[in-house]
């Protein structure tokens, strides 16, 4: 059995990591570290066989894998501690507040011979997997559009809304980490970045309205949106190619299913009735979405493989930093 220690039991730890780890054959969630009494109670109820400990106590345990699902400001510290102990580590996104810190972690892990990966779970979203399937039917892809739009008109009392740069808060770091990662996975390296970042809600300390335009080295242009106050949502994905287009709306349902207590061991896990449209105007046809597969991430880890190359997360952070610079200086930034 792979003995796993989980740092953090907020949304990331409670909804994603703990259920997915517990559902992975060969993994044993032996400890959960959280300082919040309410979350400690939740963790005990949901995972009665796991010890509820402090972060320092977790690092004293005999573990095979440490999962860092704490606030962004602590990712580097805890990942480094795991690497120094020689224990494999999973870090939630964003990997680090800066690409320089992320690169240092990658170098430290490589020097120590410690497996290191980043939880880019939305590579296994149903709609993204469907995009991968239809990509070859579009001819030469010329434009890729991707959106995460929500309706959250009130500001949360949460570190993601705090203005201290050390928190790495705001939508560009949060949802943008997925948007940028998916664009890079599909179309490769970026040569230039243009971005518009705004704070629309009264009292907002961080960006809550994001637009990023990427020009990839292969000529594809990616247009990425993230918004916390969109009362109507645009398509999740739209791809325009020389021989047709693909469009799909809505969101992958795995997060809601996990939050509701369902697990990847369920027979119909990841399956949706949602469809996209593929083709040219009136000749387009409905395309059923591929089943979502968040369970694949930890299955790969358990098999001794690295499901997400951490260097890809460094590349994504460089794009995010270029987007911040572009928005601040109102110019296109060349990478």
Overall description:
With 335 residues, the chain is of the alpha/beta class. The chain is 33% helix and 24% strand. The chain is built from ten helices and 15 strands. Helix 4 runs parallel beside helix 5, helix 5 runs antiparallel to helix 10 and helix 7 packs across helix 10. The protein is globular, with a radius of gyration of 20 Å. 45% of the residues are buried.
Question: Helix amount, in percent?
Answer: 25-40%
What is the structural class? alpha/beta
Number of strands: 15
- For the terminal residues, how far apart are their CA atoms? 44 Å
Number of helical elements = 10
Secondary-structure topology with pairs:
Blueprint: E1 2-7, H1 11-22, E2 27-33, H2 37-46, E3 51-53, H3 55-58, E4 65-68, H4 75-84, E5 88-92, H5 99-112, E6 116-119, H6 126-134, E7 141-149, H7 171-187, E8 190-198, E9 209-216, E10 221-227, E11 237-241, E12 245-248, H8 254-259, E13 275-279, E14 285-288, H9 295-302, H10 310-329, E15 333-334
Parallel strand pairs: 1-2, 1-4, 2-3, 4-5, 5-6, 7-10
Antiparallel strand pairs: 7-11, 8-9, 8-15, 9-10, 11-12, 12-13, 13-14
Helix pairs in contact: 4-5, 5-10, 7-10
